[in-house]
C-alpha cells in the first residue's frame, strides 16, 4: 500500500509577483490574466505523487503580498513545513523583498522548514532584471532550493512543487491526526484515500461563535482570512498574540 503524507506549505512574496497564479496553475492547471490581489490569505490543497507511489498532499496558504497585511504573515507560516518565496524575474526589487521574507523565515519559522526561492514570469524572460546566476548564487549561499517558473505557460510549476515534496522528511507514519492543525508540530501523515487531489477549502471551523444584532463575532485559533459572506470581506477586529487568537467581525445586512 502506498504511503500518504500531508504538509503545510506557505507562499510568500511581494504583491503582484504571481503567487496566486502559481497556485492556480499547480492546483487547477489554469491561468487568469485578471486575478485580483489576495486579501489576507487563500487556502487550497493539491497532491503530488512521487516515483515510489508515495503521495504528498500540500495544504497551501497563499498569502497577500501587500505591506498592510505583512503583520498577519506569522499566523500563516507558523508550523509550516515548507515555504515558496516568490519573486518576479522582471522586477529586481521583488528579489530584495524575497530576501526579506527569507530572513524572516530563518529567524521565526521552524528551523527545519524547507524553503524554495521561485523566480516567476519566465514567459517574460526578454524583460528579465534578475539573472539566473544572481538568484541561484543567493539560494546556494542560504541553503535554499531554487527554480524559475511561468504561471502563465505552466513551465516549471509542477517541477518545483515535486522537488519540494522529495525534499520533505517522509518518515512520519500515516495516522488519523490532521497535519497543519495548530500545535507544536504538523508533520504527521494522514489517510487521504477518500479525499480529492485538488480542492478549494474554507478555513478551520470556528471554535466559538456568537451573535449580536446583525454582527457575527468569530474566534479562530490563530487564523484570519476571507469567508464567503453577503459582503465582500471579513473585517478584522482584533488580534490577540498571547492567546494566538484572531477576532474578526462579519456583517450581514437585511
TrEMBL record:
Example GO molecular function: GTPase activity
PROSITE patterns: RAB, RAS, RHO
CDD domains named in the record: Rab5_related
Major localization listed first in the record, in broad terms: membrane
Cross-referenced InterPro entries: P-loop_NTPase, Small_GTP-bd, Small_GTPase
Membrane topology according to the record: Lipid-anchor
One GO cellular component, as annotated: endosome
SMART domains tied to this protein: RAB, RAN, RAS, RHO
Keywords: Cell membrane, GTP-binding, Lipoprotein, Membrane, Nucleotide-binding, Prenylation, Protein transport, Transport
GO term, biological process aspect, one: protein transport
Keyword Lipoprotein: yes
Compartments in which it is found: Cell membrane
Family matches, as SUPFAM superfamilies: P-loop containing nucleoside triphosphate hydrolases (SSF52540)
PANTHER family: PTHR47978
Record NCBIfam families: small_GTP (TIGR00231)
Protein name: GTP-binding protein ypt5
Record gene name: ypt5
Amino acid at each position: 500500500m502506498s504511503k500518504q503524507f500531508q504538509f503545510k506549505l506557505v507562499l510568500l512574496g511581494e504583491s503582484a509577483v504571481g503567487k496566486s497564479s502559481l497556485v492556480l496553475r499547480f492546483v487547477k492547471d489554469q491561468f487568469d490574466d485578471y486575478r485580483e490581489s489576495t486579501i489576507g490569505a487563500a487556502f487550497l490543497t493539491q497532491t503530488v505523487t512521487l516515483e515510489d507511489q508515495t503521495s504528498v498532499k500540500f495544504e497551501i496558504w497563499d498569502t497577500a503580498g501587500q505591506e498592510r497585511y505583512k503583520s498577519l504573515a506569522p499566523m500563516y507560516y507558523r508550523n509550516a513545513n515548507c515555504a515558496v518565496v516568490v519573486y518576479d524575474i522582471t522586477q529586481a526589487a521583488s528579489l530584495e523583498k524575497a530576501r526579506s521574507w527569507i530572513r524572516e523565515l530563518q529567524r521565526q519559522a521552524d528551523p527545519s522548514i524547507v524553503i524554495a526561492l521561485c523566480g516567476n514570469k519566465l514567459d517574460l524572460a526578454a524583460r528579465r532584471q534578475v539573472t539566473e546566476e544572481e538568484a541561484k548564487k543567493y539560494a546556494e549561499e542560504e541553503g535554499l532550493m531554487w527554480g524559475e517558473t511561468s504561471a502563465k505557460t505552466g513551465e516549471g510549476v509542477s517541477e518545483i512543487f515535486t522537488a519540494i515534496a522529495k525534499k520533505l522528511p517522509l518518515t512520519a507514519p500515516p495516522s488519523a491526526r490532521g497535519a497543519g492543525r495548530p500545535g507544536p508540530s504538523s508533520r504527521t501523515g494522514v489517510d487521504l484515500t477518500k479525499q480529492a487531489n485538488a480542492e478549494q477549502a474554507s478555513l478551520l471551523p470556528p471554535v466559538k461563535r456568537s451573535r449580536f444584532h446583525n454582527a457575527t463575532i468569530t474566534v479562530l485559533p490563530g487564523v484570519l482570512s476571507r469567508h464567503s459572506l453577503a459582503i465582500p470581506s471579513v473585517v478584522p477586529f482584533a488580534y490577540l498574540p498571547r492567546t494566538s487568537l484572531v477576532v474578526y467581525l462579519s456583517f450581514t445586512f437585511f
